[in-house]
UniProtKB/TrEMBL annotation:
UniProt KW GTP-binding keyword: no
Residues annotated as transmembrane: none
The name this protein goes by in its record: DNA-directed DNA polymerase
Keywords attached to this entry: Exonuclease, Hydrolase, Nuclease
Segments forming domain Exonuclease: 9-176
Quaternary structure (record): DNA polymerase III contains a core (composed of alpha, epsilon and theta chains) that associates with a tau subunit. This core dimerizes to form the POLIII' complex. PolIII' associates with the gamma complex (composed of gamma, delta, delta', psi and chi chains) and with the beta chain to form the complete DNA polymerase III complex.
Catalytic activity reported: DNA(n) + a 2'-deoxyribonucleoside 5'-triphosphate = DNA(n+1) + diphosphate
Organism: Photobacterium aquae
EC number: 2.7.7.7
Amino acid sequence: MTLSYAAHTAIILDFETTGLSPNMGDRAIEIGAVKIEQGQVVDHFQGLMNPGFRVSSFIESYTGITNNMLATAPNCETVMTEFADFIQGYNLIAHNASFDQRFLDAELDRINRRYSGSFCCSMLVARRLYPHATNHKLGTLVHQLALENDGTFHRALADAKMTASLWCHMLDTIEDQYQLSSVPFSVMQKISKTTKASVPSYLQKLKA
DNA sequence: TGCCAGGCCCTCTTTAGGGCCTT
């Protein structure tokens, strides 16, 4: 499958995990993702997964995912095999993508699977588009931009849905502000890695 | 032994330090 050129077609994903670092033994406990095509949500994926050990009370409290819920969940390998199929052929987006990419890479390494898309970070783009936001946490941006949400935070599918809303809002912002008809995924990646000061001039050049 | 993330980004910077963001 050929990767889409446009930023409006991608998969937005979010992991809940046992901690911050797969290199320190942390594992995924939930994956949530939404697939957008031409800016419309066309599919989603959600799965709890049993990491093989008890999660801390902090994680239970932070995510609302309890050890009882995980006791009956399939293992990480089973869920991640299905997820590897789901993401094939799509570019990938996450809020603070370096975190989710580390866990995706670590979990897929365990089942010897790879993905064909490339990542873009919604947080890095938001920092450049909305430099005056109070902060660039997902919840803060959702609130300040008045994006649709159901009040659920720190669950994988809910966070993926909110990140998708943020992503589409940022595309609208760019297209309106610079009168662009369609923003390539590669342009969003470029924005995420560009200094704040040079973003306007970069987009002006695209407009020209 | 004791400690333990990691990448981005700003600034009192680049021979560094600390805050932000993710769980």
